[in-house]
Amino acid sequence: MKLRNPPVNSLSLELLTELVIGLEKLENDKTFRGVILTSDRPGVFSAGLDLTEMCGRNPAHYAEYWKAVQELWLRLYPSSLVLVAAINGASPAGGCLMSLTCDYRVLADNPKYVIGLNETLLGIVAPFWFRDSLVNTIGHRASERALQLGLLFSPAEALQVGMVDQVVPEDQVQSTALSVMSRWMAIPDHARQLTKIMMRKATVDHMIKQREADLQNFVNFISRDSIQKSLQVYLEKLKQKKG
After folding, report:
1. The whole model's pTM is what?
2. Which of 5, 9, 88, 118 is catalytic?
3. Which residues contact 218 (CB under 8 A, 6 or more apart)?
4. Contact (Cβ atoms closer than 8 angstroms) between residue 137 and residue 161
5. Where is 25: in which H helix or E strand?
6. Does the annotation count 118 as an active-site position?
7. Which segments of the chain are extended strands (E)?
8. Active site residue 49
9. pLDDT tens digit string along 12-47?
10. What top-level class of enzyme does the UniProt entry assign (predicted)?
């Protein structure tokens, strides 16, 4: 499954919706046992959440957008499919979150391809389920430091901290992902799926229980004048960079 939303695969409401529908179809078709998640845009896996969906809109739109973000995580994190992230570009914020939901992560060895949850750099707080996804992958102390500082890890750093499982030359990312998939496919589905749910159920249940409160927190937070101003400033900087 290749992400394609030029120029940087931002997770727009439309892309989120398409991803959820696509994953649901694959899960319901028992001939599919696994998905390799990658990018169709050279140099960027996904730039993460689409800030234009979170800036200058009304609270109803913010709620609709955040529900779609929650839905994607709830579709990916407990998925019965084997999910392998073939990360062939930079993967900050929401892009990193998507990869964290996968069972295995392969990252291209390019110093420009950074990965991490860098929300604090934008004045935004990563929600608890972003945190839980990271803590479950790299541990509490490393996550605490990474989240507070909004760290973006180089491939070597990401491998060292355990954020990715393998770093390979750029031209070997897809072939490595396929090789990894074969290894996971060799395990009987029922045993692997039950083990995955056993490992992830508490995190998923916590998110579902708190889903409505998380939605309200997001809408209240993102609607603040100070947050809207900081997002506007950041988006303006991006426009100037493009210019």
Report:
1. 0.94
2. 118
3. 62, 63, 66, 127
4. no
5. helix 13-28
6. yes
7. 2-3, 10-11, 34-39, 43-44, 48-49, 82-87, 89-92, 104-108, 115-116, 166-168
8. yes
9. 999 999 999 999 999 999 999 999 999 998 899 999
10. isomerase
